[in-house]
Input
Amino acid sequence: MQRDIRNKYKRISKVQLKKLRRKRWRATFIFSIRVMLVMTVLMGCVPFFVFGKELAGSSASGPASEIIASPTETDPNQETEPIHTIPETKQETETASDKQEQLESAAPTEAPQDGEAKKQPSFIDPSKPMIAFTFDDGPYTKVDGRILNVLENHGGRATFFVVGSRVGDYKETLKRIYDSGSEIGNHTYSHKNLQKLDAGSIVSQVEATNDAVEAVIGQRPKLVRVPYGAYRGQVSDAVRYPMIQWNVDTRDWESKNKDAVLNSILSNAKDGNIILMHDLYPSTAEAFEEAIPLLIERGFQLVTVSELYASKGIPLEAGNVYFNVK
Ligand code: NI
Output
């Protein structure tokens, strides 16, 4: 009997021992798994502690990543590449790659005058030929800087029809355009075909751009260039500004070829012409740099659109469309 009990206890204790060992082993196993999990989480977080938001931005994908990655203003040397490039007649993707921006040269400030340009021209001779160059889809420092250098070196001006959504990223460039006496026009806020929008949306596309420009230079543009030249339908009623078209299309966005653009400019240089170009392409700046000294030599005056019409004595009226002065 006694022996039986002892045996029984022995047997039980062996079973219990096994159970105990099994329990311990399981506890150790679970503990190590937990430790590994905690370590993994901590390791995963380290880069975020080190790199912060930048990492979150660069690792994201899709449209949101573009928003995170898109630079903000303030430093003109870090301005964005062109966001779109929707040329006047055909959709196209922007391929500008050179990120080197030109340094802004701040022009001396003067008290703003009423009107389209800060500095009024010293003198425009109505008896001499004049051309109004127009640049759409900017601002864009890299190209505008070169265009403005040429204009300033030759005492000329041009008209820059800016896209409202870009203005905040190119404040310094916008100021420089204005300070140099060139004219800033309105190319709508997000470069949509206005013929496809209702009247309310057209008004807000135009006014939001004027608001954006006014916030930077303190003046509202007086002229509108509708995207794609689409002024028909209800557009002329909804756009309460003169709509400026062109009669010479260099198709610079299409060729992106300096010689082609240069040839177009030189062969169409005629008194009263309005020439369409886009300040998004280095080839456009190159062509302009070569063309301007030649045009000056030929006796042309480089004027803004408002100056062109004022010099010819033609009033610019809201809702009307203008192509050139004959
Ligand atoms: Ni455009």
